[in-house]
Amino acid sequence: xxxxxxxxxxxxIDGLIERAQRHKAAPFGFDxxxxxxxxxxxxxxxxxxTRISTExxxxxxxxxVITYDASGGWNIEFDEGATMxxxxxxxxxxxxxxxxxxxxxxxxxxxxxxxxxxxxxADHVIKSFVKYATVPVVSLESATRHPLQSLxxxxxxxxxxxxxxxxxxxxxxxxxxRLPQAVANSFAEWMVKWDKVDLVITNPEGxxxxxxxxxxxxxxxxxxxxxxxxxxxxxxxxSSYADYGQTADLPGxxxxxxxxxxxxxxxxxxxxxVRRNVVVSDGVLNSNRSLVLQQANNRTWSAQAVLEAIxxxx
Length: 314
Ligand code: CP
Known about the structure:
Blueprint: H1 13-25, E1 38-43, H2 49-60, E2 64-69, E3 76-77, E4 90-91, H3 92-102, E5 105-109, H4 117-121, H5 124-132, E6 137-139, H6 147-160, E7 167-172, H7 182-194, E8 198-202, H8 211-214, E9 218-220, H9 223-227, E10 232-236, H10 257-260, E11 267-269, H11 282-285, H12 292-312
Bound molecules: phosphoric acid mono(formamide)ester.
Residues 47-50, 141, 149, 271-273 line the site of phosphoric acid mono(formamide)ester (CP).
């Protein structure tokens, strides 16, 4: 692997899950991988899980780790040919070139604007770093995808599946803010490519995800019908792709005990952070069917697996 931006960078998802499970079984068993090597984590947006789990993963692999809050640094210009006489102080061409001299793997998080669909879906920030960096780039979530989260979700489903091809339901859930589609896009993309589950996506009319991510999944607008016999329910809010970046006040889409009662005693999943009693009721989140902490735990092993695969060129 020479970059990790999406499921398309993975030839064998099961092989990567098995690699992550080897790291989970022996967290310090691969501490030669990062010997005399450096990982830089560049954050343009906030994070709790991604930042800490990636730092922990890299440290356990023996890397030196530098995390930089790019939101507090020089404003970076991403447009080619820009005349930089306004707010941007440094072009990504120099920034990526400089950082590549300081590290062996460059990890980047950046969120979409949610105002310009074409620009967001061009994923300029992460793609510009890939273009100008001379070291492998790992996505810590881009405008359109969150692949380390999706890999952790695949691990979590693997650990909790009790039958072949479980029914996995990705459900839209309410949220007071306008949120990216990245987690949902990525989850759908990984589930379809993995082809080990039957994926159903349920969301209100007007909130269908971009078709490039959902081809191969069943999309339903009746949430209760979608939940029937589900083995896993993955809740996430996303703003509209069609009416780009807009949201809707639909509290009836919250996941609660009554809806989980329609399922095959399903496990509940969410990438976190989650708004209690808005996205999901306390009763569901506090139940012994909630996998949210296990998902967050698996972020460390997914990061270790990806960093090891990159360093070994496998
Ligand atoms: N799930 C996730 O990526 O969490 P953070 O935004 O806290 O990193």
